[in-house]
Description:
Helix content is 45%, strand content 13%. By secondary structure, the chain is α/β, with parallel strands linked by helices. The protein has one domain (3-333): Aldolase class I (TIM Barrel, Alpha-Beta Barrel), CATH 3.20.20.70. Strands 1, 2, 3, 4, 5, 6, 7, 8 and 9 form a nine-stranded parallel β-sheet that branches. The longest helix has 19 residues, at 30-48. Iron/sulfur cluster (SF4) binds at residues 64, 66, 68, 71, 73-74, 110-111, 140.
Amino acid sequence: MSYENALKKIxxxxxxxxxxxxxxxxxxxxxxxxxxYELADSVRSDFMGDEVHVRGIIxxxxxxxxxxxxxxxxxGNRVLQRYRMEPGEIIAAAxxxxxxxxxxxxxxxGQDVYYTADVLARIVSEIKSSLDVAVTLSLGxxxxxxxxxxxxxxxxxxxxxxxxxxxxLFAWLxxxxxxxxxxxxxxxxxxLGYQVGSGNMxxxxxxxxxTLARDIVLLRDLKVExxxxxxxxxxxxxxxxxxxxxxxxxxxxxxxxxxxxLPRLHLPATTSLGTIHKQGRRMALKCGAxxxxxxxxxxxxxxxxxxxxxxxxxxxxxxxNVREIQYLLEDxxxxxxxxxxxxxxxxx
Length: 348
Ligand code: 5AD
Ligand code: SF4
C-alpha cells in the first residue's frame, strides 16, 4: 500500500488498518513525516482537546526480581544502590504531589514481592480516602488475586507496557518471561475494570518498522486506554549498554501514527524522550501526546531509580518538576487538566 492510500485509510477507519498500512506510514520520509506530525496534532486537538493531563510518579522501590536486558533496575545490576520507601513515606509523597495540583498519582516500582498485596492495598486505600486523586499502579506482573485486592482498595488504573509486540525479541529481552503471559495479565486487568496503560520502546536492537507497526496494531487490539511510547536509552550498567538507542524522529513518528490510528488514546510525552532531547516532551506534545508524567519521588531516592542514564527532571524537587511543566504548557498555549483525566472511552 502506498503512503497516501494508507494515510487515507487510517484516517477514515483506523479499526480496519493493517500492519502493512501502518508500516507504510512509519516508513515516511522527512517531508511526509512533518505532515504526519501536523495531522496527529490536529487529531489530538479535535478528540482530546488542549488539556494536558499531569500524572505524578512516585518510584517507591528500585528492587526488581527480573533481569530485563535493557533496564538498569535488573536484578543482575550490582552497582545500583537499591531503596524501598516505607508506606508512610509513599503516602506523604502522594500528599505533597496532590498539594501542587496533581490529580493522578502513579505508584511505580520494580517487580518487588517485598510489598505484599495487603501492604499495597492499605497504601492505595489511604491515598484514595485522604486525597482527591486517581491512583495508577505500575508494579509489573502480579497474581490475579493481588490485582483484585488493589482494585477493591480503590486503584483506578494499571500500567503494564507490552514493551515489544515481537514475541521472539520479547523473550530475549526479558529472560524467563513471555509476551503471552504479559498480554494475559493485560486482559486480566481489563476484566477487573482497570483503565489499562500499555506501550513499547522504540529503537530496541533487532526491531524494525514492521515490529513497530505491530506494536501500534496491538495497542488497538488490546483496547488499552493509554500507551507510553518512548525511545530505548542504552544503560551502560546493562548487557545492552553498547547498543544504539532509539532516536527522536522515529519515536515521534510512532507517536504520531498511534494518535492517527487511536484518536482517543491517552499518550504521554515520555520522560525518556525528554532525556534524549531537551525539547523532546515539547515535540511530543505537538505530535499527538496529551499527557505528561513528572517525577514526584522524594529527591534523596531519585538517582537510585536509574532505569537509564540522564533521566530528565532527575535533579528537580517534586514542586519544581510540576512548575516546569506548567510553564511549558503555558508557553505552548495548552493547559493543565483540572480533572482526573480518566479515559474518554472508559467513561463512555
Ligand atoms: N530505555 C528506555 N526505557 C526503558 N525502560 C526500561 N529500561 C529502559 C531503557 N533502557 C522502560 C520500560 C519499562 C519501564 C520500567 O521503563 O518500558 O516498562
Ligand atoms: Fe524490572 Fe521492569 Fe526493569 Fe524489567 S523493565 S528489570 S521488570 S523494572
